[in-house]
Amino acid sequence: MNLVTVSGPPSSGKTSVILKTIEAIKKRQLKVGVVKFDCLYTDDDILYEKAGIPVKKGLSGSLCPDHYFASNIEEVVRWGNKEGLDLLITESAGLCNRCSPYIKGIKSICVIDNLSGINTPKKIGPMLKTADIIVITKGDIVSQAEREVFASRVNSVNPQAVIMGVNGLTGQGAYELSTLIYDKNSKVESVKGKELKFPMPSAMCSYCLGETRIGEEYQMGNVRKMDIGEDND
Amino acid sequence: MISIKELEMKKIKDLENQYPFILSFFENNKLDVSNFKDSTFHDYLNHFTEEEIEEWAIDIPKIKLDLEAYVNQMIQFLGLEKDIVNSITILAGKDKYGKKENFDSLTIKKSEIVSIVGPTGSGKSRLLADIEWAANRDTPTERAILINGESPDYSMRFSTSNKLVAQLSQNMNFIMDLSVKEFLELHARSRMVENEGEVILKILEAANNLAGEKFNLDTPVTGLSGGQSRALMIADTAILSTSPIVLIDEIENAGIDRKRALNLLVNEEKIVLMATHDPNLALMADKRIVIKNGGIYKVIETGLREKEVLKELEKMDKIINSMRTKLRNGQTISSM
Question: Closest-CA residue in chain A for B68?
């Protein structure tokens, strides 16, 4: 089975891009499944089901979504192999711009959209910088100049990635993407022992543990103060 | 090809002098080198503490590989005598029922305009995607695209700076909150053009030549009217975009002189493909491609008779436009 991890900011068009790409892959008689990771809510699994794609969803709830991804991916891969999939795609939203759910040796795709603003490539960390393929969506509604500037900025933060435009509505570019994500020589039996491409931030403070009160005396563990130019004491 | 071993031993100020484009790499990767101009890049990377590396998600081995890739891409891009695209050739594939398309090959030369007609869903987007991807019998239609009569270098499929096709459509908007001048500067810099100021003035002049109402360099791009936006997009694409092929999806007949717009693109030696059902535009083209069932069904040359009809259409267009101007100025319409 091939494994591909797709991530990107909320509403960037991940699900639409994946659906259009699977349409193209299915024509090659390959069996594709999806596992959707989200935080509080998603009904994208219904969209996948409607398209006849085997799907599982996981909501991280009160846990950090990418930590949740890392603690579940092994079981997810086992499921995919049991289903006899040729290709398993995981989809997860990058919610804090600092994490990324990519695994070394596993193809990673980051989906970002032209509408998100010209400084977005700067703001997104490892999720964009360590992706193998970067898909830029919503190119049909911004000007040619903005598309060119956006793509060149993306290229400057990840010059080694393949960068391509895909239209999630019409599917333009999805066929081309589909040719890049399935490799008949790649076989992922398990991801046990593999490593994340980049460590996740270490955050353990009293608020992680359920504290709700505001005030210095309630703050413990990893606490940092903003520098607002006044004496903090 | 220059290696990272060589690059990282250079002082930052020397890197900046030798490769001015490296500034945007530093900036977009948030590498603040302002106090390290006399250090080597290697020493600069080594100054980060463990905490900083973790805090700001700095991946030093990756930055090195990225810098090497970026510098080499840019050297290649700048040094490259731009391969001039003089023509594209479409070699027939098959329609969605597997039937061979109703033509053998179609060559479109630069400065030529070809319109594309056919019902929605007939396969226009696929044709355009085939051209953009430089299909090599490896897309669902099994078409092949030749450039200057030959198979192109397929690595350009993944190049961000050498895209074959620029697109203009009715749905496109400016989303950046910038003035016309700032907007054009940003685009010019990403293209690394040398005479930025001149190019910007040229684009403004060309755009105002197309737009019904004039605008200036200080106008915010989001404040432009529909016609003005279209005019600026077309002028900017004609003059500043490196893509040799321009693909147009309809141009609405309001606030913009469409004939001049097409002439501008043609004068800048673009190959123009235009999906339209507007007789005025379709007949301006030299040829039109008719698409049916996912395949090219016919290629029609615009005949003399049609060119005469076009003249009549242009007269009607003028009448409508002059009425529009009258309405705008508060006059009444008394006759045709």
Answer: A159
- Sheet-wide strand order for B87-91: B105-109, B87-91, B144-147
Q: Are A152 and A187 in contact (CB under 8 A)?
A: no
Do B144 and B9 share a structural domain?
A: no
The pTM of the full predicted model, rounded to 2 decimals, is 0.86
| A198-215 CB burial, b ≥16 within 10 A, e <16 | bebbeeeeebeeeeeeee
C-beta atoms of A122 and B28 within 8 A: yes
Closest Cα partner for B240 from A116, A164, A156, A149?
Answer: A149
Structural contact between residues A181 and A32, judged by C-beta atoms closer than 8 angstroms: no
Q: Residue B229: list chain A partners with CB under 8 A.
A: 143
According to the per-residue pLDDT averaged within each range, which of A95-109, B156-170, B194-208 is highest? Answer: B194-208
CB contact under 8 A, B160 and A155: yes
User: Which residue of B125, B174, B190 is in closest CB contact with A152?
Assistant: B190
| Closest chain A residue to B241, measured at CA | A145
Rounded Cα–Cα distance for residues B131 and B127 (Å): 6
In the 3-class helix/strand/coil scheme, how is chain A assigned residue by residue?
A: CEEEEEEECCCCCHHHHHHHHHHHHHCCCCCEEEEEEECCCCCHHHHHHHCCCCEEEEECCCCCHHHHHHHHHHHHHHHHHHCCCCEEEEEEECCCCCCCCCECCCEEEEEEEHHHCCCHHHHCCHHHHCCCEEEEECCCCECHHHHHHHHHHHHHHCCCCEEEECCCCCCCCHHHHHHHHCCCCCCCCCCCCCCECCCCCCCCECCCCCCCCCCHHHCCECCCCCCCCCCCC
**B329 in a domain, yes or no?**
no
Q: Which residues of chain A have pLDDT under 50?
A: 233
Q: How many CB atoms lie within 10 A of CB B246?
A: 24
The ipTM of this complex is: 0.83
* Boundaries of domain holding B58: 4-78
CB contact (8 A) between residue B236 and residue A145: yes
| Domains by residue range for chain A, with CATH | 2-181 (3.40.50.300)
Q: How many CB atoms lie within 10 A of CB A152?
A: 20
| Same-domain check for residues B14 and B100 | no
Contact A153 B28 (CB under 8 A): yes
Asked if A102 and A198 touch (Cβ cutoff 8 Å), the reply is: yes
Residue with tokens 């929605």: B120
Query: In chain B, what residues touch A163 (CB-CB under 8 Å)?
Result: 158, 160
Alpha-carbon gap, residue B115 to B296, rounded angstroms: 12
Name the residue among A130, A144, A171 with its Cβ closest to that of B167: A144
The predicted-structure confidence for B293-328, as pLDDT tens digits, reads as follows 999 999 999 999 999 999 999 999 889 888 988 998
Beta bridge partners of residue B167, listed in sequence order? B247
pLDDT digits (tens, 9 = 90+) for B6-46: 999 999 999 999 998 899 899 999 999 999 999 999 999 99
Q: A89: how many CB neighbours lie within 10 A of its CB?
A: 27
- A163 φ, ψ (degrees, to nearest 5): -115, 125
Residue B288 belongs to some domain of the structure: yes
CB atoms within 10 A of CB A17: 24
Is the residue at B159 inside a domain? yes
